[in-house]
Amino acid sequence: MALELVPDRHFDPSLEEIFRRGVQLARASTSMPWWAPRRSKAVQIRLRADGTRPLRYRIEGPAGGERLLSITPFGAHVAVSRARPIADKPREHVVRAEFLLRGKPTAPLREVPLDPDPLQPLVDAVCDLRAELGDLAELRLDIQRAPKWALRARRLQLMTAARRAEQKEAQRAARWIRRDAAGLEDSLAWQLQQLLHPRRPAGGRRLVMPPIPRRVDPVQALGKFAEDDQLVRVQLLVMCASHIEGRAEARLAQLQAALDVFGGHSRWAMRGLHVGPWRLGADRWPSRRGFERRWKLGHCQPPRANWVRLEELTGLLKPPTVHCRLPLLADSLPTFAFGDPDLLLQGIYRSPDGRRRLVATHAKETLFECAVGRAGGGKTERALAQAIGWAHAGGALMFLDPHRDSWPRAAPFLAHDALMQRIALIDLNTAGPTPLLSSWNPLAMQHGPAPHDVIEAVSDAFASVLGWDDASAPRAITILTACLTVLVTVNQAACHAGRPQDQATLFHVRALLGDAAFRTAALTAVSDRLSEEIRAWWQTVFPTLPSDAFAVVLNPLARLAAHPVTRAFLGQPTGIYNSRAAMDSGLIVWICPAGNGPTDRLLTALLARDLLRAVRSRRDTPEHHRRPFRLYFDELITLTGAAPDTIASMFEDFRKYKVTVHGMTQLLARLPAPVRMSLTQNASTLASTAGSTTAIAPITAEWGDTPSPAEVAALDRYEHYMTLTVHGRRIGPVQVTGPHLDDVFADYARPLDVARLEHTARTTAGAQPLDQLTERAATQLDRVNTFLAQHTPTRRTPAVSLDKAKEYK
After folding, report:
1. Are 138 and 91 in contact (CB under 8 A)?
2. Which of 49, 150, 237, 533 is least crowded, fewest Cβ atoms below 10 Å from its Cβ?
3. 443-452 pLDDT, tens digit each
């Protein structure tokens, strides 16, 4: 049987749990019939690395021990599953080694602490394996409970050796004593003493008593063999292979150095002899045949010296723990490939051997991202690299940048003929003698949106920015909702009549409230389309409202109308901007608001709420037909200040409609609480560049303060710590270098085509001269009045049948 153990990222066992696991392994090694050969009664721990995973931890042994080993003392932190046999393809170069204990036979191995993980040297030794080169490294530790007679024989041997050593020491001491006495009598000083005192009788040689051998202390002589409990025999085999000459030998040397960590008075040493440049060991006759037989069949025939206590094997009786730094291999974190729509660029990872590679996450799993850090740290640069890579792979996106810095930076890398027709630039930063501007009517109905969704989106945007709610401003919400209902109904009638150019705009709310003639014409023209409740409100409630009740609604509209850009942008009957169409048709939309003042916040709130409405409207499309769409929000503080609840809803709902959100902010703590909680709860990727420890602490707290805020604060520019989601499992925090456009996308740069790109992008967005849009916005009210006059229904007295007349009578 074979079991594979996969720990989670919080696996942190105690010494007692590891010891209990060792007891299970020792007990499972005896779950064989009495007649089975001794060499088959063992449990094998396999530590294997082949470049696809950092380190695989397997347990193999008798089938009778499967039930015992399936339930571990590690609890839910280690997933135990049945493992299939591993079929290795032959490699061109293979080296083998068997390790035995050298040094004092009764001394234990060094006690290695659990933090850092004792497996860390082994992981470091195989961290740079390359699967494409056929690299393989495997360590097998066989554990076998020794029979009582073998243990007694080993103790007798050790005691005999200890007594023999004590006798030799006593004989050696006696020889030195006799030699010292003889040397004293033959000395010149002793002879002079006899001449000076002739009366003293001159005896012969002194009688010297030799020392008696001391009694051998069994505890001291036997060491770790003094007690019977948890004493096992082990066999340690290692094999390394590769298709490249020399790599297997170098790997074996690294593993040998890693095993030196366990060495003390007793240590692991490679079995065999070194004769010049040759090593006579498991790779040579006559040992190779026996090694291959034990490796293939799992036989355990340990050397005579390989006796250990379970406490000495603490580091090998468990999978890697939370204190082990595992390398990120290609299977753990995919390598980014240009033009692959399934991958999303994340950065540059530097492996332990110094190699650098572009790493990515799977696009389907990367739902929401959050990047935090100081200004200029590389947040926007990384987001631009990701967006550009996604665009070249055929993906659709929207980049919302309140400061417009991102567009000039990204334009040279988007100026490709294959992309130009899909890019739309909506730039509200007017510059130059003849500025060009796109347009948008939040109340337009020519695309067929649900009227109640449009009314709700606009009214919620105003309420969010102005702080309205049902408790503080119920009358303002009611007035605005009633006005929007009438105007949306007018627009619906205009589109139904085939005259979308006669639609009302947001600014006509002022005429509806302040111009009695326009109000009467609008209510009369669409009275048949309005509900009875709305008509009753305009007929009974509206006349009772004081004139100052409208100021709270009219003031923000007056600010929007006073600004020439917002007046021209929102004052057109049929705007080009359509977020739902952009998602469905795969456009790349760049939106650059003019700033972050009160008027700009209101405009941003309108855009955000319309985006929320458009995404939710995708429920009318089957899930497998919804085209993935990515939203990039630069300066989340500015955007959430305008529409906090809207942004929070995006992080909560958009996953269902295949729309993902990537947000960037300097301070996570400055985000509104709903946005911050939704973002950290649902973030697939959480990244941080350098910054103050106070600003970074909320992010590191999500990581368990590993790394600490001080470590993140000391990062260089373009360096990030981030957690990623791959195959449903969180990776990291890992240090990644943010991609720089000039390096990563150097082959995609087309600076000479930027002017053509900008012209095409503005054309796609329907940009027109500002003065022309301003003139059209000023005359739009007249066109609406003309439409209302021509479509006012004629009131007729309905004829009543004779039967009806009798009923009435």
Report:
1. no
2. 533
3. 998 888 889 9
